[in-house]
Amino acid sequence: MNLQMIIFVSAFLTISEGFTVKGSSGPLVVPLGGSVLLPCSVDSLISLKDLEVQWKRSDSQILIHLYEDGDIRPEVQHEDYRDRAHFFTDNIKHGNFSLMLMNVTNKDEGQYTCTVHSGQEFGETVLEIQDVERLIVSGSDQSLSVNVGEDVTLNCSVDSHIAPEDLDEVSWKKIVKDEHITVLLYQNKEVHPESSDERYRDRVEFFGDEIHRGNFSLRLKRVRSEDKGVYMCQVFAGRLSDNTTVILEQLGFSSVHILVLILCISACGSAFLFCSLIYCRSNNTGFRVEDSYWVYMERSVVLPCFIDPQLKTEGLKIKWRRSGLKSPVCVYEDGSEVKQHEDYHDRAHFYTEDIKHGNFSLLLTDVTVKDLGEYTCTVNSKQRSVFSFSVNLKDISGKFKGLHKTCVSRQ
User: Fold this and answer.
1) pLDDT tens sequence across 6-24
2) Strands 63-68 and 71-72, how do they pair?
3) What is the pLDDT of residues 341-354, one digit of tens each?
4) Domains of the chain from N-terminus onward
5) Which residues neighbour 83 within 8 Å (Cβ) at sequence distance 6 or greater?
6) Would strands 144-148 and 240-253 be described as parallel, antiparallel, or unpaired?
7) Nearest-CA neighbor of 146 among 217, 276, 249?
8) Are the CB atoms for 47 and 20 separated by under 8 Å?
9) What HEC string does 214-251 produce?
């Protein structure tokens, strides 16, 4: 996150007989965490022979940087300024000894002295970093997961010396490639719901009672599957600006959306049960789902396994395993089915065309008693951590025994 501050630099001139050392003529603006130019130059060209330029903290005499004997001496810098304070090397021969100070923090406040020695002559200028303005926008450090149809809160908190009602603008936008879709806008001390894109109209709101505290969190209601993505809360106050992003990552299905049972009757009157995947939110990056499926012998069953379709298929490896079986039932790797256990040869198949949509379900045909047990679908990817799904296959024994489901977050 970017922090902002305005730094006012005051300069004092010291005049010697040979040259005058000049500093800044007015205030400088720099973002906290950014860079600031500390100006120091002479009004006439001087010889580089015997030239020495020192930058020091006036209050502590800490050496910030040194030019001596025709060379820059970074090895003598104080550790607090190492790799942060730099001369403009090519400009030294023109009498410009300004210093670029990077990654500015509050500790950098104070007075700075630039002293120029040339032979028997010297001059100096004193600059002061004295005032700090902050604009800190913070959000959530973790991506959010929510069930379709539920409400979710996208966090955005503004810490500033400026009163929230005096902020120029606070906007929530969804980032889609190079497009920024307006979700909700706060401007001129008012919320402007009419600014919302039609996809979010009447579904987004601020917490009105919290705005005076700098809380510009967004409530997104009745979440849809297409709401998934990156959202940015951006704040403007004069010349200051900062932002934070929130990722709405995993969209599952609430209980009202779950398909409990599909009963398909075959030509001879037999049937198999196909049940949809239950999603469970977890604090970890993946899911573990344990379902029980009953199936008629000598029939077919689909063992479901679904993940985010945005997961790149490059470097993807999917394994279906059965409890008690040492080698995998079926393996999919590098875009093709590469291995089958001999007991499942020509009986276990991926839905190859649906892989790109995140469907790694397994079709198991000609089911026998030997096939009963727990099946686990494991997905490995270079882009994500491991996902694991488990399904328990049981014999229906000629009559419907009911369907028992349990859903457990992977620890």
Assistant:
1) 444 444 444 444 788 998 7
2) antiparallel
3) 888 888 888 877 77
4) 5-129 (2.60.40.10), 135-252 (2.60.40.10), 258-407 (2.60.40.10)
5) none
6) parallel
7) 249
8) no
9) CECCEEECCCCHHHCEEEEEEEEECCEEEEEEEEEEEE
